[in-house]
Structure formats: structure tokens, C-alpha cells
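User
New here, help please:
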Amino acid sequence: MPRSKSSERAARFADFEYSFSRTVEQRLDHAFIHTFRPGFDDGPPMRSWTTMNEYRRWCEENLEPWLGYCSPEKTRQMLRDFK
């Protein structure tokens, strides 16, 4: 059964009050989701490249296409291989 506008507004306000009652630390704990990124998280903590082409080449060779750092061609190939 659909809610009335007033009950929907009351439910949303109750959600807001509950969220607002959390501490800043609790809010930050709930705000970020850590996802392991192969190639980034398992290597050295800092990398640098002289040119953008070097960076793009490194991405092509070291990162998974689903991370979104590879060329469109590599992503399309991954999708074809997935089917």
C-alpha cells in the first residue's frame, strides 16, 4: 500500500534525524567503501610518469579494464571475451 505524502515526509525526516544523530566519525566510517584495485593497491605507494603516454601504457599493461583506466579497445575486448 502506498504511503501518503505526510507519512512519506515523516519517514524521511525520521531517517534524517537518525543519520544526523551519528557522530562525525560514524558518518565517515559509513561514507567510504574501500575496494581493492589490482595494480594500484598492491604496488609501491607512489608512482610517477614523465609523460601521459607512459602513464597510459602502464595502465594498459598493469590494470584490469573494469577499473576504467584502460583504452576503450581493451575494454571492448574484455567484454567480447566475457560473453
